[in-house]
Amino acid sequence: MERWEGRRSVVNADHSVRGDAATDTGGGTGLIRALLWLVVAALAVRQVAVVLRQPPGERLLDLETWIGENGVLHVTGSLYDSGRFTGTPFAGLVLKPLTASAQEALGVAWTFGSLLLVVALGIVAARALPSPVGRRTALLAAPVAISLLMLSLPVRNTLHLGQTSILPVLLVLLAWFVVREHRAAGVLVGLAAAFQPVLLLFAALLWLTGRRQASLSAGVTFALATAAAWAASPQDSWTYWVHHLAGAGLGERPDSLANQSLHGALLRLGLEGPVEIALFLVLSAAVVVVGVRRAVRYAQDGQLLLAVAVTGCVVVAVSPTAWQHQLLWVLLAVVGKVGKRASDRLVWPSVVLLAVTLPGTMLLPNIEALFPVRDNVLLLVALGAACLAPFVPRTSPYWQHPVPTDYAKPVAARWRRVPLLPFWRRVLTRPNLLLELLLIRVVYDAYAQVRLAARAGRPLAEEHGRQIHAIEQWLRIDIEHWVNHTVVQITWLREFFDYYYSTFHFIVPLTILGVLYARRPADYRWVRSSIGFATLLALVGFWLYPLAPPRLMPGLGFIDTVHGVQDFAKPDYGTLTTVTNQYAAMPSLHFGWSLWCGVVIVMLAPKLWMKALGLLHPLFTIAAIVATANHWVLDAAGGALVVASGFGLTYLLSGPRQLVTGQEQVTGTTTEPAEPPAAEASKTSTISETSKATDSTESTESTESTESTESTESTESTESTESTESAESAESAGPALVPEREPAERVGGK
Questions:
Q1: Cα separation of 75 and 660, whole Å?
Q2: Residue 694's pLDDT is what?
Q3: Phi-psi region of 734 (alpha: psi -120 to 50; beta: other; left: phi over 0)
Q4: Does residue 735 surpass a pLDDT of 50?
Q5: pLDDT tens for residues 217-265?
Q6: How many other CB atoms sit within 10 Å of the CB of residue 564?
């Protein structure tokens, strides 16, 4: 089935860059806050520059369609005749006066006004965080929220199209968190629904949370605004409300990737007609019931911002069309806390941020079986927030005190002259698998994009190739031509090296990471960091020193065994595909990653034959890259250098791989305690007191052991009584303390 992108899709957005204080703030908070506001300013300038630098026909597309020189609002007759206007008749009534403005001035004012709305939205959302909020969080929340909003796909798409979708979101947040008078709050919700009718769901939320006056006011405001638009444009109102059933089907194809609603997903899955409509209505009803009930529960729990976000995610799912610029509600769901462990708290916000700021093509590979997930990432996150995510209630003991993360004790440097950086702490448990897979995919896609962008002209790459060849001749290691031609004459050997070059480059590192993730989580984190640093350093090499591999060097007689015979006469030769940069040869990550595999296997494999087998992989790889004419010998040396640097940086940040407690702690995992953190703290305190009493008893026994037999017997009797009382006291403190009686019993038995 054809997957229609649509102009409201991520492709268009890619024109831009990809309470009370509970604790005191540290001395560096002011500096961090200033830096964050500088980031906000830089992002704002960047977004304005990106929009205004576009030619008139490629910027503010919807705004120009509506109120440009030949825009819809200039034309007499119905707004919906051309199919270019998708807003409500009330939105057309509000926008129509802007047609008298100068087009250039309006574009600039519209862009700056949209950015101001984003700033206001971030400030309101930051102040709506559920209490208690630490002072540091309260100071940093606003610039962080605004930065995330500006980086999000909905805001970038809104700025590119010139849409009004930020305004309804801001009106709803103002109604819930700023305006205190119920009627005024209802008026704001009603106006938001006049722009997007599905937002009337917030009137239902107002009613169910006890703000019935505000709910009634919202309904009345919506009815009056709709009636005013009907009186001003009866034909348009009839077309929108009756013919198109509240705007369903207006604008672009509803099955395009930009429509992240249940209706759009069902159409992309191939369902059509009455069956699709019936299924959409049933699923929408279920999502509304489940999502609104959850929102009411979170509102009663004191998490009003989460309740609003959940309701907004319901709106996204049940709308006939939920274009990308209307999906800001998904980003607001980042405020929910999921998980009892501190290490799990980052999973949900990370998934939300990745889904809202990056296109689906970066999150999932180009595999057909994954298309239904990749094409509906935002919808799936919205459904997760509305119906599935187990957000922690404020009444839970884990709300403020999640189960802490286990960190390894710092290990002194093996070489005293090498200082270790103290801020990188080794985590003993394995990371969340979903988050790890997402991050690996995103990092690799970013690596591929940077490598693709690090292009250079063919003359410069070939000049560097001649430099490398000359150096190898001087060092007498220019064996590439001899190896290449020797292997070509042996068919089975050539096929083996071609297959090895194309296949094992990814399979072996991923296998090692998978085994370590399952069996040795602490070691997994250490080696994962090392290969990550090595890859980043390799990107610097690709950028600074573009290099033509032997197979792309004209006149040297190399044979490309993998890609076949190439035509050097073509001016674009070397750019074989748009997927990879053919001139990113120095350093060789083919050899670098294989060397990393060999080093890791030698370090961690328990048996000698495993270590020997691990060393074969880099040996086969260097033979393959030379035999296939894909790399010079010095490229392999560069790969070895970046891998060594990757291990060195990891050593500086986290210390030696081996932990203080030995191999058992490296492979150990943490189990969740049976009691909440508060009980654990009480238990620890009681145990400590019991231990101190025991130590005191042992000291008294040692002092009095030199006295007479009668005195000793008296002392033992007293000690026995004291130890019995101590045990009884421990038992009365709670059943969890019973196992701690053992030290006292040993003392009493002496």
A1: 77
A2: 41
A3: left
A4: no
A5: 999 999 999 999 999 989 889 989 988 888 787 877 888 888 999 999 9
A6: 7
How confident is residue 293, by pLDDT bands cut at 50, 70 and 90?
very high
Query: How far apart are the C-alpha atoms of 386 and 314, rounded to whole Å?
Result: 6
What count of other Cβ atoms lies within 10 Å of the Cβ of residue 49?
11
Q: For residues 360 and 357, what is the distance between their CA atoms, to the nearest angstrom?
A: 10
What whole-number distance in Å separates Cα of residue 174 and Cα of residue 172? 5
Q: With bands split at pLDDT 50, 70 and 90, how would you rate the model's confidence at 418?
A: low
Residue 58, Cα to own-chain centre: how many angstroms? 30
Count CA atoms within 13 Å of residue 375 on its CB side. Answer: 24
Taking a C-beta distance cutoff of 8 angstroms, is the pair 594, 557 a contact? no
The gap from C-alpha 729 to its chain's centroid, in whole angstroms, comes to 50
CA distance 716 to 708: 12
- Asked, as a colleague might, if the bond just before 365 is cis with ω within 30 of 0, I would say no
- Contacts of 82-87 with CB under 8 Å at 24 or more apart are 83/250, 83/251, 84/251, 85/250, 86/247, 86/250, 86/251, 86/321, 87/164, 87/195, 87/247
Cα–chain-centroid distance for residue 72?
39
Confidence class for position 208, pLDDT limits 50, 70, 90: very high
Rg of the Cα trace of the chain?
A: 33
Average pLDDT over residues 386-401: 92
